[in-house]
Write a structure and sequence with these properties.
The complex is a heterotrimer of chains A (129), B (305) and C (313). By secondary structure, chain A is mainly alpha-helical. Chain A contains five helices and two strands; from the N terminus they run αααββαα. A two-stranded antiparallel ribbon of chain A has the order 1-2. The longest helix of chain A is centred in the C-terminal third of the chain and has 19 residues, at 110-128. The termini of chain A are far apart. Chain B is of the alpha/beta class. Chain B is elongated and about 65 Å long. The two termini of chain B are 25 Å apart. Residues 288-305 of chain B have low confidence and may be disordered. Chain C has 313 residues and is α+β, with helices and mostly antiparallel strands. Chain C is 73% helix and 7% strand. Chain C has ten helices and four strands; from the N terminus they run αααααααβββααβα. Chain C has helices at residues 2-41, 43-49, 54-97, 100-103, 110-145, 159-179, 182-208, 247-253, 260-269, 280-310; strands at residues 213-218, 231-238, 244-245, 272-278. In chain C, α3 packs across α7 (182-208) and α6 (159-179) packs parallel to α10 (280-310). Chain C is elongated and about 80 Å long. Classes of the chains: A mainly alpha (129), B alpha/beta (305), C alpha+beta (313). Chains in contact: A-B, B-C. The interface between B and C is medium-sized, with 34 and 26 residues.
């Protein structure tokens, strides 16, 4: 079961943060079709947010076809976002961790690394296009 | 959706000063409402009028469609927590619960007992020997264990340490999730409200400055940043606040529609930002008065991501 | 709401009982002292025999005069104090502590809440004041028997002290509803009770009570009504011609305190005594009239408190 966290200072709407976290978990394979999402009550008991926010996030996910409610039981994952190419990403994740380690040793901040990463991705996409 | 709390041109005068003036509201059911405003804005007065502790000088207020007159059925459906968290100093915790049980037919003793355990309030201790946070907890238990449909809290979180505050917030939200309770609480600390409330009422100098779904309010306001423009204009959009540096103008506007002027970079507005801007400009828009019978903004619009 | 009304009233009731626990022994002990002195000095025997016990009575009053004054003042104030203690904080404390905002947002109406509180408070007060009244009646009875004081009959029975306590209670409750602070409520309540009680007392005596009857008899001799259970309201002297004489004038004519010489002098100069008395049966009427008046006025004050409480600010 996924456990949500809240970044109150980020300026991102709470429900969007929840949606984002579900999608992230789906991508990484931490949530799979058939898994149950925490009930609104459980999320609220942990985070102390407005229950309507949770319901709104789940409705949004439902709208995108990722989850579906089962009456009397809860909300369950319908569809995976994990693309096949994400399978076997363990090696890539490890390589990435190594790169991050080196970058930090070189004195780069998280923002610097993100900037480098974004540029690399853009370059690659433009190169392909 | 029905309005649980409505006010129509509600006013309250003490001797010469109007604590509340021309105040109109319609709060839908099932919401968590933040009543914000600076000290002296009239928040306490509004709550006291809503619960029948005060009588209006002008206008009227209704809960569940009826005036909050001295009637047992109405009183049973409202839970109220006054700002000073009144409790009987000489009573023990257990006696306070018995008090609640005797005076409220809807009292749920099992529920009260569970909360007592959760807060670890010793039943034999006198109220006078409880800490401030414990007193708030006990007072809240008293308000909630009668199973109200509407809960009115006057600055419940003031004087509480962050841990207790977070715990109480969670408890309240759990109750809202479990029972569909409508909660109205007043606060003069805006920063923490964004994740909790979905309806906002801003009072300033006794008048309603803002009232509506937080989502709708945030969607309806934009921050425009662009080259200096003084005096500021923003086309059809109403300017709430303008600030200028040597080369830049920042406007907080109430957007009448999409912003087409390419000179502006358009940003979203945060709740605290919005509230503070209106508080700094008390003469900014006062929203039109909703009629007592109809509820103007009750549909929760799905905002496309 | 019974338990709530009782539990909220408990501190005030305990205070009232404490007051009684202090005042009671004072009354009992002083009463005993007087009784034994009267027995030992022969005053009791004299009164029983029906003689003129002036000398012996004065011996008693000179011995215990100061104590009698203070204890009788205590006795008069005791019902008032009980009523104030129970009524003063009832509403005033709620407002002072802000607990009215708790009490009036529970599921009972203000009217029902107040009715229960008042009923419980008044009920217990009647019981406590009743005990005080019995004590006071006993105490005054000591003196009444010895013909030493003339106030006893007014306090006959438990009526007047209990009614006084209820009057004080009602006034203090109203004061609490108006001042909304405990100490001002007690202070204004005390002043108001004294003023009102005094006024009502005079009214009762002047208009409601039957007039005392006069009886004239030669000075130095015992009253023809001796042995009857009269309450002598006042007593004076007249000369042969029927003119009023002050005690000092009588003293100048026939100096000396008591004794056969004085008696002979008085008889010789034709001086008469004039007593105004209420026959025994009448004392009850006066007490009843006074009590009813107190209760009516108490009810008015309670209505005031009720109105002020039920009306939201």
């Amino acid at each position: 079961m996924i456990e949500f966290y809240l970044d109150r200072g980020s300026g991102v709407a709470t429900y969007l943060q929840l949606v984002h976290q579900v999608k992230q978990a789906l991508r990484l394979g931490l949530l799979r079709p058939g898994d149950q999402l925490p009930t609104a009550r459980e999320v609220v008991a942990q985070l102390g947010i407005n229950p309507n926010t949770v319901l709104k996030a789940y409705r949004e996910l439902e709208r995108e076809g990722l989850v579906a409610p089962r009456p009397g039981q809860g909300t369950f994952v319908q569809q995976s976002l994990a693309s096949p190419s994400l399978a076997g990403t363990d090696r890539l994740q490890r390589a990435l961790a190594g790169w991050v380690h080196d970058a930090r040793a070189a004195g780069l901040t998280g923002e610097d690394m993100a900037a480098l990463f974004d540029r690399a991705v853009r370059d690659a996409e433009e190169g392909v296009a | 959706m029905t309005a649980v709390l409505e006010a129509s041109r509600l006013g309250k005068r003490y001797r010469r000063t109007w604590a509340l003036r021309d105040c109109s509201l319609a709060i839908p059911e099932g919401r968590v409402v933040a009543l914000v405003g600076p000290n002296g804005a009239g928040k306490t007065t509004l709550l006291h009028l809503a619960v029948g502790l005060l009588a209006p000088t002008a206008g009227e207020v209704r809960i569940f469609g009826a005036p909050p007159a001295d009637r047992a059925e109405v009183l049973a459906r409202v839970g109220f927590l006054a700002q000073d968290k009144p409790l009987y100093q000489g009573f023990t915790v257990a006696e306070m619960l018995r008090y609640g049980a005797q005076l409220n037919p809807g009292w749920d003793q099992a529920l009260a007992g569970r909360w007592l355990e959760r807060f670890q309030l010793p039943p034999a201790r006198r109220v006078g020997h409880l800490s401030g946070g414990q007193r708030t907890q006990l007072a809240l238990v008293l308000a909630l264990a009668k199973r109200p449909r509407l809960l009115l809290l006057d600055e419940p979180m003031a004087d509480l340490d962050p841990l207790v505050r977070h715990d109480l917030t969670r408890l309240l939200m759990e109750t809202v999730a479990a029972e569909g309770l409508t909660v109205v609480f007043s606060s003069h600390v805006v920063a923490e409200l964004a994740t909790v409330c979905d309806y906002l009422v801003l009072l300033a100098v006794g008048r309603v400055q803002l009232a509506g779904d937080t989502e709708a309010l945030l969607a309806g306001h934009k921050l425009l940043v662009g080259p200096r423009r003084d005096p500021p204009t923003a086309g059809p959009h109403q300017i709430v606040e303008a600030s200028h540096t040597q080369r830049q103008t920042t406007l907080l506007v109430r957007a009448a529609g999409p912003v087409h002027d390419p000179a502006w970079a358009v940003h979203e507005v945060g709740l605290e930002q919005l509230v503070l801007a209106y508080m700094r400009h008390p003469d900014a828009t006062v929203l039109p008065r909703p009629a007592l019978a109809a509820v103007p903004h009750d549909t929760k619009r799905e905002v496309s991501a | 709401m019974t338990w709530v009304a009782w539990r909220q009233q408990r501190p005030a009731i305990l205070a009232a009982l404490a007051l009684l626990a202090v005042a009671g022994p004072i009354l009992v002990v002083s009463g005993w002292q007087v009784t034994s002195f009267a027995r030992d000095s022969g005053l009791a025997a004299c009164v029983a025999a029906g003689g003129d016990c002036q000398v012996l009575a004065e011996a008693l009053t000179s011995h215990y005069g100061a104590m009698l004054e203070s204890v009788s003042a205590l006795g008069a104030l005791l019902p008032i104090a009980l009523g104030l203690l129970v009524g003063g904080p009832l509403l005033a404390r709620e407002f002072e502590q802000g607990t009215h905002r708790l009490a009036w947002t529970q599921s009972v109406t203000r009217g029902r809440w107040l009715a229960a509180r008042l009923a419980m408070a008044a009920g217990v007060l009647v019981a406590v004041a009743g005990v005080a009244a019995v004590l006071l009646t006993w105490w005054w009875g000591r003196f009444d028997q010895l013909r030493v004081s003339s106030r006893a009959a007014l306090e006959q029975g438990s009526l007047v002290p209990v009614a006084t306590a209820l009057l004080a209670f009602a006034i203090a409750t109203a004061a609490g509803a108006l001042t909304r602070r405990v100490v001002p409520a007690l202070a204004t309540g005390l002043v108001a009770v004294l003023v009102v009680a005094l006024a009502l007392n005079l009214a009762a005596q002047s208009w409601l009570a039957p007039r005392p009857l006069p009886i004239t008899y030669p000075a130095g001799q015992p009253s023809p009504r001796v042995g009857l259970d009269d309450q002598v309201v006042d007593s004076g002297y007249r000369d042969r011609a029927g003119r009023d004489l002050s005690a000092r004038a009588v003293d100048r004519l026939c100096p000396g305190t008591a004794g056969q010489a004085v008696d002979r002098c008085l008889a010789a100069s034709g001086i008469q005594r004039v007593d105004r008395y209420q026959p025994a049966g009448r004392a009850w009427q006066v007490a009843l009239a006074q009590s009813i008046l107190y209760l009516v006025v108490a009810a008015l004050f309670l209505v005031l408190a009720w109105w002020r409480t039920l009306r939201p600010d």
